[in-house]
Amino acid sequence: MTKAIIAGALLALTVVHNSAIAACTPSSDHAYLYIGWPNDGETLRAYRPFRVWFGLRHMGVAPKGVDKPHTGHHHLLLDRELPPLDEPIPADRNTLHFGAGQTETRIDLPPGKHTLQLLMGDHLHIPHCPPVYSRKITVYVKDRR
């Protein structure tokens, strides 16, 4: 009887796990997301607010709510780690959403060291499977003086 209970529990966990995987929006093979500007290690003096542009290969960009295969929209992470990759991407002051399908922005950061990283989200702001994110870059913002 104990073996039957354990087997039933394992079957239930497998069904739940496989359902979660099936619900995930697949990314394209070889998808590559990157920050085109600024460059890693860049010191920004006269560029406040400065331009950040996003690069994406082997996937398309579509506004939030548009459910098309192999598409998503950008999220820019400022001075933070990647959020949980199996939950909707949070909306806060360190996570900028570009749900209209934008591929660039202008941001104003205080002087100091900052990190930037991109994360693609599907039509519901959930990372794809596998997740598509850029490498994290560091920029240094100097006063205009």
Number of strands: 9
Tally the helices: 1
Structural class call reads alpha+beta
Please name the fourth-level CATH homologous superfamily: Immunoglobulins
Q: Unreliable stretches, pLDDT < 50, 5 or more residues?
A: 5-22
- What name does CATH use for the topology? Immunoglobulin-like
Our count of domains comes out at: 1
- Overall mean pLDDT: 87
CA gyration radius, whole angstroms = 19 Å
- Shape label: elongated
Proportion in β-strands: 25-35%
CATH class: Mainly Beta
Q: Could you say what the CATH architecture is? A: Sandwich
Helicity range of the residues?
10-25%
Main sheet summary: 6 strands, mixed
- End-to-end distance: 77 Å
- Please provide the ordered H/E string of secondary-structure elements: HEEEEEEEEE
Defining key terms:
single chain; 145 residues; alpha+beta; Immunoglobulin-like; 6-stranded mixed beta sheet; 3-stranded antiparallel beta sheet; 1 helix; 33% strand; elongated
Description:
The protein has one domain (2-141): Immunoglobulins (Immunoglobulin-like, Sandwich). It is 15% helix and 33% strand. It has one helix spanning 2-23, and strands spanning 32-37, 43-44, 50-57, 60-61, 71-78, 95-97, 104-107, 112-121, 137-141. The strands form two sheets. Strands 2, 4, 5, 6, 8 and 9 form a six-stranded mixed beta sheet that branches. The protein has a three-stranded antiparallel beta sheet with strand order 1-3-7, with no helix packed on it. The chain is elongated and about 50 Å long.
